[in-house]
Design brief:
By secondary structure, the chain is α+β, with helices and mostly antiparallel strands. 25% of the residues lie in helices and 25% in strands.
């Protein structure tokens, strides 16, 4: 964390109060001791780092006014998220209300059960003073429903006690918005990983929550990742870390920050004390641990090792980079890998998870039309704005990027005889671009460019890897995983011959029947003329239920190649289609160790050194 010179520039002062829990309103104020002589300009960020879409958070500002010395000051709106106050001689304060009803990890949410906010949603930037110290007084709500609330954040305390209401400090605006805040009556547990305190905060009703198991599992994951990046010192780049978790009926997602993560999950995915002590971790719980592993890996990869265009962030406009395959895709590669390296899951479970990823990548024909570099660059307009045709038009830089990471890892290990791996590349990125990112006086470290990445891969591996970049990063070729895995005794099996009849569609809920959310190019539904948005109501004269759909049960009565009539509504018109059933368009992949062969070094648990 950067040292703050309080004498150099006066701190920007914020106050935030959960004012109306039922109305979902935060009252916020910002005071500038020395506003710009020509009139101080304020702006609310248009997006939040880690989520590449213009969110227009300013639309949630309900009322706003300015004052100085107790007198009103004229405030002119310049655009949808920018205001200019008239020149004043003394300190200037803006007062505003923020509507907070977005139950996600990206924005702000407030009701009688809890309060949550990211700084990008509630804290106006004081343009020209981003580098000044920023203080925020988080005040207790007056509503009796919040009498037992506490505060959880990784922001350093100034006048507040840990987990208490009061004043918190940030070195600058960038740090202020990189520490989300949760307030409520939450469950709390702590552990130390290589000497660093980590806190687990769980908000929401979770009967019989097994915090001890969660504590032990996260400790293993965090220690494994710290040792991965710093095998000699075991030194983490943080002074404390907080897992902020919102448990709901149905939800999944996470957003990384420099010393914390905001998570949302289904409460049934969290471990229960009612489960037998010898019980294996459930599939849902493993998924949640994978999410935690993913966001924690971002502490190094994207929060400190950054694309050059993110050093620093331009929070008012889209910032394009073709490198999200490295920052999100490689993080997706390592998230489950860290679970097996830390002993959380078995190698067999790891291969099952990997098989699902391979199948999901091969299922959409978009992979043949868009490279992961293009997917990264177009995240703002395509990946974060997906429509019904997305599987046929785009590829995910998360899933395909993770397979790119696997391809590089296997290639480097095989061609160097195990002397080098992708691990060495990641540690080199950390040493050169990440470790000292926040160490400078300005805090703006150097980001990495596409040329830097490719040169570093060659340098660390001692190989020429341009063909892999051309074919799998900048190109759209499918990764030949069976060939790449062969030297390690790992076998990939295409299970399509055993697949049941499929329409190759994505199905959503509708009272009338099975609503087609996606129709995969080349699949049975597409060949028959069905379209996304159609509602299938009958298959071969038998009713198709809505939620849950019985479509799979009906299809199980037929064979691949059978032709059946399908009735569907398109808008308000009933249509009839002749549909020839297919197997899966994409392989259903199983991965395992071939009998009598050695196991792959890719999932071998590393030593501490």
């Amino acid at each position: 964390m950067k040292k703050i010179n309080q004498k150099k520039q006066a701190a920007v002062q914020y106050t935030i109060v959960p004012k109306d829990l039922a109305g979902h309103l935060f009252n916020v104020s910002v005071t500038v001791a020395l506003p710009a002589a020509e009139g101080q300009v304020f702006a609310l960020p248009a997006w939040i780092p880690g989520s590449y879409m213009i969110r227009e958070f300013a639309r949630n500002i309900v009322r706003i006014r300015a004052e100085s010395g107790g007198q009103p000051v004229e405030l002119a709106k310049l655009d949808k998220h920018t205001w200019r106050a008239a020149p004043v001689a003394g300190p200037l304060t803006l007062h505003y209300e923020v509507y907070a009803w977005d139950l996600s990890v990206r924005a702000a949410h407030l009701d009688q059960s809890h309060g949550f906010f990211n700084g990008t949603s509630v804290f106006l930037r004081v343009l020209g003073q981003d580098a000044a110290p920023h203080q925020v007084d988080i005040q207790r709500p007056g509503d009796p429903a919040a009498a037992g609330w506490r505060v959880a954040t990784s922001l350093p305390e100034l006048g507040a006690k840990r987990y208490g209401f009061g004043t918190y400090l940030a070195a600058d605006y960038d740090e202020l918005i990189d520490h989300p805040v949760e307030m409520g009556d939450f469950a709390l547990a702590s552990f130390h990983a290589h000497g660093i305190q980590h806190d687990i905060v769980v908000t929401g009703r979770v009967p019989n929550l097994d915090m001890e198991r969660l504590r032990q599992d996260l400790k293993a994951i965090c220690e494994t990742q710290i040792a991965f990046f710093e095998p000699k010192t075991k030194k983490a780049p943080i002074e404390r870390y907080v897992f902020l978790t919102m448990a709901v009926g149905d939800g999944y997602g996470g957003l990384e920050h420099r010393a914390s993560t905001a998570l949302i999950c289904s409460r049934v995915d969290l471990p229960s004390t009612a489960a037998p002590k010898t019980a294996e971790r459930s599939e849902g719980y493993v998924t949640f641990l994978g999410l935690c592993s993913h966001e924690y890996f971002h502490t190094w990869n994207v929060k400190r090792i950054k694309p050059a265009v993110f050093a620093p962030y331009d929070l008012q406009a889209e910032s394009y980079t073709p490198l999200l395959w490295l920052f999100e895709g490689f993080t997706s590669y390592y998230d489950d890998l860290m679970l097996v390296r830390s002993g959380i899951i078995s190698e067999g479970t790891y291969f099952k998870l990997l098989g699902k990823t391979v199948g999901s990548v091969l299922r959409g024909s978009g992979r043949t039309k868009q490279s992961v570099a293009e997917s990264s660059f177009d995240a703002w307009t395509k990946y974060y704005r997906q429509d019904e045709n997305a599987p046929n038009a785009i590829i995910s830089y998360y899933t395909k990027g993770s397979l790119v990471g696997l391809a590089f890892d296997l290639t480097i290990r095989a061609k160097t005889g195990g002397a080098a791996s992708l691990d060495d590349v990641m540690r080199a990125l950390w040493e050169r671009y990440g470790r000292d990112f926040y160490a400078g006086a300005s805090g703006d470290g150097r980001g990495v460019t596409e040329k830097d990445v490719e040169a570093l891969f060659d340098e660390v591996s001692g190989l020429r890897l341009k063909s892999l970049f051309d074919r799998y990063v900048r190109g759209t070729e499918d990764i030949p995983l069976a060939k790449l895995y062969a030297p390690f005794g790992i076998k990939l099996v295409d299970e399509r011959k055993n697949a049941k009849p499929s329409l190759n569609i994505g199905v959503g809920r509708d009272p009338l029947g099975a609503k087609l959310n996606q129709v995969h190019e080349g699949g049975a539904a597409h060949q028959a003329g069905l379209s996304a948005g159609d509602i299938v109501i009958a298959l071969d004269g038998l009713r198709v239920n809505g939620a849950p759909s019985n479509l799979d049960q009906l299809l199980a009565r037929y064979r691949v190649g059978d032709t059946v009539p399908v009735h569907a509504f398109r808008r308000d018109e009933l249509m009839r289609f002749e549909l020839t059933l297919q197997g899966c368009v994409a392989p259903v992949v199983t991965i395992g160790v071939a009998p009598g062969t050695r196991k792959t070094a890719t999932v071998k648990r590393p030593s501490a050194s």
